[in-house]
Amino acid sequence: MSFMDKVPMTVRGEQQLRVELDRLLKRRPIITQAIGEARELGDLKENAEYHAAREEQGICEAQIRDIEYKLSVAQVIDIAKMPNNGKVIFGSTVGLIDINTDEELSYQIVGDDESDIKKNLISINSPIARGLIGKEAGDEVSITTPGGVKEFEIDSVTYA
Length: 160
Description:
The protein is α/β, with parallel strands linked by helices. The protein has two domains: 3-77, Transcription elongation factor, GreA/GreB, N-terminal domain (Helix Hairpins); 79-158, Roll (Chitinase A, domain 3), CATH 3.10.50.30. The chain contains three helices and seven strands, in the order E-H-H-E-E-E-E-H-E-E. The strands form two sheets. The chain has a five-stranded mixed β-sheet with strand order 5-4-3-7-6. Strands 1-2 form a two-stranded parallel sheet. A hairpin with a 2-residue loop joins strand 6 and strand 7. GO terms for molecular function: DNA binding; RNA polymerase binding; translation elongation factor activity. InterPro entries: GreA/GreB_C_sf, TF_GreA/GreB_CS, Tscrpt_elong_fac_GreA, Tscrpt_elong_fac_GreA/B, Tscrpt_elong_fac_GreA/B_C, Tscrpt_elong_fac_GreA/B_fam, Tscrpt_elong_fac_GreA/B_N, Tscrpt_elong_fac_GreA/B_N_sf.
């Protein structure tokens, strides 16, 4: 696998995936036990407990495979260890001023799985993040978003 196949992820994003993987791996034996207990109840064709446990097992195993894959292709970037050259990069937090409304916004640029607009975490692949990458404090940018063209002034760039 080359560097280009890697998917950027923050340290926090990797930790969250590892916690979820650990939770799922601990759930595995509980599901297996539930399947065994349901089998003992007899006829498997009409055994709702058995079918529910098997379905849960399938979902759990799919989630485990998904997380293991994501971790295998992750390029974990610790922004706190990078020298701040003032440019917007993956993992940086960007303070913005909406030029049209004077509204102040702040976004951290993160990986796809970590993005959560309610927590001001935007995906590296979002239009706003793509428009900000490589820019620096004081720059004005026009970004085409699904809601139309937005104009921002970059107020600050922090690596925390």
